[in-house]
Design brief:
- There is one protein chain.
- With 115 residues, the protein is mostly helical.
- Helices cover 59% and strands 10% of the residues.
- A two-stranded antiparallel ribbon has the order 1-2.
- Helix 1 runs antiparallel to helix 2 (97-114).
- The radius of gyration is 31 Å and the shape is rod-shaped.
Length: 115
């Protein structure tokens, strides 16, 4: 990273652009295919790349948050499944067959919804 001061044009820091140079009249764009006035080149390659890089960083952060949420949901789902299995085991061991059937029906409905 350089110690250059940020120069924001069209919402992009152009201080690291290879074509952005200081001249007698101030700063100019030295790209032979573009206007000398950087603000008249809103979609030059440097600015497009800077915007896409920022967009990618934002998407990476969004993906991290989504992965974290998915992991939490999976953990919660696993806890519920484990709880259902414990209840099922308890019902098998301690309840008479009539009560157990009703409990198993409830457990099976829950497992189907979780699916």
């Amino acid at each position: 990273m350089t110690d250059k001061e940020q120069i924001i044009i069209d919402g992009v820091d152009v201080s690291n652009c290879e074509y952005y140079k200081q001249a007698f009249t101030g700063f100019i764009c030295t790209n032979p295919n573009k206007s000398n006035d950087c603000s008249k080149n809103p979609d030059c390659n440097f600015k497009q790349l800077a915007r896409k890089t920022k967009e990618c960083e934002e998407l990476k952060n969004k993906i991290k948050k989504l992965r974290k949420n998915i992991a939490l949901e999976i953990g919660t789902s696993d806890r519920y499944r484990n709880a259902l299995e414990e209840i099922e085991e308890y019902a098998n061991t301690y309840f008479d067959k009539g009560v157990s059937k009703e409990i198993f029906d409830i457990i099976n409905k829950a497992k189907e919804k979780e699916g």
